[in-house]
Amino acid sequence: MYEIKRISTLKWTTKVLVAGDRKSPAVILLHGGGPGANAEANWSNTMKDLSEHFYVIAPDLLGFGETSLPEPLPAGGLAWIGLRVEQTLALMEALDIKDANLVGNSMGGALALHLLLDAPGRFRKAVLMGSAGGQFGVTPELMRMLSFYQDPRHPRYREIIRSFVYDPTDTSLFPNFEGMVEQRYREAIREDLKRSYETMFNPPLPPLSPSALASIPHEVLLVHGRQDRVVPLEGSLYLLKNLCKAELVIYDRCGHWAQIERWDAMRAEISRFLLS
């Protein structure tokens, strides 16, 4: 379904999932920023479908998964996002990718916007799902996620993951929800990742300004779950208002993980948008 590579660039070695034909248009998948997140957790169910039309690259972003950690650790959201911009561009060089489409979930959506700003000529289009980077009121669910390491017990982590989705009891989408929680929890409580996470949001990544967003020339597809309790819909509405070439698709019966909860519809939207 996908190949796992470890690619050394700059000061880091990045774990990367790769699938599809190198001659196809490139798509880089950027995962979210919840405790225990990584490329496989976010994208394993999408790689096969996307690889039918695209050359798909999904890295473990700095601070997550099995990618090596920067030393010293950066402090604050902007410092981390800047290093991830450098990480993504260096991976493109290492894989000989001239230009690519971007698909970003949550924090990965904010990273995609920063990439479009910093290196506009390297990217074609972007799909942002439940994206950070916009302006919105901080929800209790988001605060609970960001403060996880103040009380990193398994029951609390389980409630955080439950808040990410519309219906965790839907066995057609989550045939082993408790197993998924356990697997992600083991990742989240790794001491090295805990140490990194505690610096990522202190201070948090600020929203992009209207003028910065208006300067992005790329076509952007915004995807949002109507029942997203982590990043509320108002975040995508802010992006829709300020990006110059954006459209918004809202999915009902969908929380923060549209790539899992509504992949049936989202797969067709991505193909329509990126291949047009």
TrEMBL record:
GO cellular component, one term: membrane
Organism of provenance: Kyrpidia tusciae (strain DSM 2912 / NBRC 15312 / T2) (Bacillus tusciae)
Taxonomy, superkingdom: Bacteria
InterPro entries xrefs: AB_hydrolase_1, AB_hydrolase_fold, AB_hydrolase_sf, Epox_hydrolase-like
Cross-referenced Pfam families: Abhydrolase_1
SUPFAM superfamilies with a match to the protein in the record: alpha/beta-Hydrolases
Record keywords, A-Z: Hydrolase
An example molecular function term from Gene Ontology annotations: hydrolase activity
First and last residue of the signal peptide: none
Protein name (database record): Alpha/beta hydrolase fold protein
Residue ranges of every copy of the AB hydrolase-1 domain listed in the record: 25-261
